[in-house]
UniProtKB/TrEMBL annotation:
<dbReference type="InterPro" id="IPR002156">
    <property type="entry name" value="RNaseH_domain"/>
</dbReference>
<feature type="domain" description="Integrase catalytic">
    <location>
        <begin position="294"/>
        <end position="451"/>
    </location>
</feature>
<feature type="region of interest" description="Disordered">
    <location>
        <begin position="551"/>
        <end position="577"/>
    </location>
</feature>
<dbReference type="Pfam" id="PF18697">
    <property type="entry name" value="MLVIN_C"/>
</dbReference>
<keyword id="KW-0540">Nuclease</keyword>
<dbReference type="InterPro" id="IPR001584">
    <property type="entry name" value="Integrase_cat-core"/>
</dbReference>
<dbReference type="InterPro" id="IPR036397">
    <property type="entry name" value="RNaseH_sf"/>
</dbReference>
<dbReference type="GO" id="GO:0004523">
    <property type="term" value="F:RNA-DNA hybrid ribonuclease activity"/>
</dbReference>
<keyword id="KW-0808">Transferase</keyword>
<dbReference type="InterPro" id="IPR012337">
    <property type="entry name" value="RNaseH-like_sf"/>
</dbReference>
<dbReference type="GO" id="GO:0003676">
    <property type="term" value="F:nucleic acid binding"/>
</dbReference>
<dbReference type="GO" id="GO:0015074">
    <property type="term" value="P:DNA integration"/>
</dbReference>
<feature type="domain" description="RNase H type-1">
    <location>
        <begin position="17"/>
        <end position="164"/>
    </location>
</feature>
<protein>
    <submittedName>
        <fullName>Protein NYNRIN-like</fullName>
    </submittedName>
</protein>
<dbReference type="InterPro" id="IPR040643">
    <property type="entry name" value="MLVIN_C"/>
</dbReference>
<keyword id="KW-0548">Nucleotidyltransferase</keyword>
<feature type="compositionally biased region" description="Low complexity">
    <location>
        <begin position="555"/>
        <end position="577"/>
    </location>
</feature>
């Protein structure tokens, strides 16, 4: 570890005795009265300026310090030098963390490029030029009572003066061919060498499409011909740090270069890019919409959920229970949403009134998945069925009831100003006694086999028709059997829906994130491998719960998209477009 992270043996932080050169460096960046920024650097001795250059306004002060130190190292090539700088950042790069960054490929611990990466790399290379060099820290803007302070002052004032100077014009191109006006080629010689190593078949393909050779360089329509051996590097460059789409990659490449058949490579490259897969919206799986489980009789299966309401007195939540057979709702104001309160309410209000249900369905909230809740219902022989996360359609009965109750309470609050704990029983009354569904029956009629007494109408049909209680009970039983048969036949059968999603065990998928800390966090997590599947859900390696298939999209296996380019020849491409 020490060998990998230690600075060069020829670089030290202790002043050299009898050095060949004593240099002072400084970089400056400031804005003038109009708000325009100016940047420059200078390398001086105590009494003379050795080098001073203006820099583009986009350069930061830290980058200017790095360029100044780099220029000083080049001036001290083959010599022993003391270099003074008032920038702790530049000294730290040279002595402390520059070597660590170089070992990591100038990437941070998270894998992103470091700031000023190009300038840091230039400095690390320039530090190898002097025979021995000491990079020393000098106090900025100190009193001019020492040679170090005088030299630093000269470097500081010179950097500020040169910063306002116009930038030197770019050197003229050495050829008249406009194909070299592109900025991504850093060496025409390398391109010519790669073209020369191309196969005869590939070169004939260029010529057949109108390419010409001038000064040893093949071009077509004034665009350089890129050999197929450079396609991986070209695609990686076009994709860039912003991970542009395949269409934009093709547009960029076709505008600057002649690279026939590269669209296949750009398509495969973007399809294999994990970052693009995690951040792009993409197309999700679309499993068929199945029906809910079909109960056989009232209160065999129930769905439960909580509604959060504005605090009113000691109440802040509503525990909602819906019978999946009849649609009969129960709702209870509660002060909190704990497992203890929920279990107590269900036992005292549901079990004691309607009996023990066979199945209780709910989401995977901590209230319902707590160990105390599981222990109670397991002891009573109740099966707990938890729905897949972030898929409210699985709890369709109770979710719809939540919306219905809240809407009715809202309307009563606006109409009469009633508090929601007072209007909740009225909302339940309306739902229980209102006919609905295919058979036009209310939940009350499904449960009790007769029409409810609503005050304005008293159903005396059964009372007048039967004089004996036994006959009444028998007839009621027959009516209930008839009603229950009609209701059961009208409930959709979940097995009647055919089809499934396209995921199979062994596939790799990304899972949608529904809770992101910020908009810069990827939309998807993964990839994960599919272990098991059902008609609507999948079990993934590394995930404890089943995931609904509509939350997944297919992905390439977790291999780096850049791995295929490791074996490519020396790239003539820069790090980014």
């Amino acid at each position: 570890m020490q060998q990998e992270t230690a600075h060069l043996p020829t670089v030290s932080d202790t002043a050299l005795d009898n050095p060949d050169l004593t240099l002072f460096v400084d970089g400056s960046r400031f804005s003038d009265a109009s708000g325009k920024f100016h940047t420059g650097y200078a390398v001086t001795t105590t009494d003379s300026v050795l080098e001073a250059q203006p820099l583009p306004a986009s350069c930061s002060a830290q980058e200017a310090e790095l360029k100044a130190l780099t220029a000083a190292c080049k001036l001290a090539a083959g010599k022993r030098a003391n270099i003074f700088s008032d920038s702790r950042y530049a000294q730290g790069v040279a002595l402390d963390f520059g070597t660590i960054w170089k070992t990591r490929g100038y990437l941070t611990a998270t894998g992103s490029p470091i700031k000023n990466g190009r300038s840091v790399a230039d400095l690390m290379e320039a530090l190898t030029l002097p025979e021995q060099v000491a990079v020393l820290k000098v106090k900025a803007h100190g009193r001019l009572t020492s040679p170090e302070a005088i030299g630093n002052h000269l470097a500081d004032t010179t950097a500020k003066e040169i910063a306002v100077a116009p930038l030197p014009d770019a050197p003229p191109l050495t050829t008249s061919t406009p194909l070299l006006q592109v900025t991504f080629l850093d060496s025409i010689d390398k391109l010519q060498a790669c073209q020369a190593s191309a196969s005869t078949e590939e070169i004939n393909g260029w010529l057949s499409k109108g390419a010409t050779c001038k000064d040893g360089l093949y071009s077509c329509n004034k665009k350089p011909c890129i050999p197929r051996s450079l396609y991986p590097s070209l695609v990686q460059w076009a994709h860039g740090p912003t991970h542009v789409s395949k269409n934009l990659m093709n547009n960029l490449i076709s505008k600057l270069y002649f690279a026939p058949g590269i669209t296949t490579l750009t398509r495969n490259y973007t399809a294999a890019c994990t970052i693009c897969a995690q951040c792009n919206p993409g197309r999700m799986e679309k499993p068929p919409v199945l029906n809910l489980a079909k109960p056989l009789y009232p209160f065999q299966r129930i769905q439960i959920d909580h509604i959060q309401m504005p605090r009113c007195g000691r109440f802040e939540y509503v525990l909602v229970v819906v019978d999946m057979f009849s649609g009969w709702p129960e709702a209870f104001p509660v002060a909190n949403m704990t497992a203890k309160t929920t279990a107590k309410k269900l036992l005292s209000e549901i079990v004691c009134r309607y009996g023990v249900p066979e199945v209780i369905e709910s989401d995977q909230g901590p209230v319902f998945t707590a160990s105390v809740t599981k222990d109670i219902w397991t002891a009573l022989g109740v099966t707990l069925h938890f729905h897949t996360p972030y898929h409210p359609q699985s709890s369709g009965k109770v979710e719809r009831m939540n919306g219905t109750l809240k809407t009715k309470m809202l309307k009563m609050s606006q109409d009469s100003g009633m508090l929601w704990p007072d209007s909740l029983p009225i909302a339940l009354f309306s739902v229980r006694y209102t006919p609905r569904g295919v058979n036009n029956l209310s939940p009350f009629e499904i449960l009790f086999g007769c029409a409810p007494r609503l005050g304005c109408y008293f159903p005396q049909t059964l009372q007048l028709q039967f004089d004996v209680l036994n006959e009444y009970v028998c007839q009621l039983s027959n009516e209930l059997s008839k009603v229950h048969g009609q209701v059961f036949s009208s409930i959709p059968d979940p097995t009647s829906v055919e089809g499934s999603h396209s995921l199979v065990p062994g596939d790799w998928v990304l899972v949608k994130k529904f809770l992101r800390k910020s908009s810069l966090e990827p939309r998807f997590d993964g990839p994960f491998q599919v272990l098991l599947t059902t008609a609507t859900s999948v079990k993934l390696d590394g995930k404890n719960t089943w995931i609904h298939a509509s939350h997944c999209k297919k992905s390439a296996p977790p291999a780096s998209p850049a791995s295929d380019s490791d074996s490519a020849p020396d790239s003539i491409l820069p790090a980014s477009p």
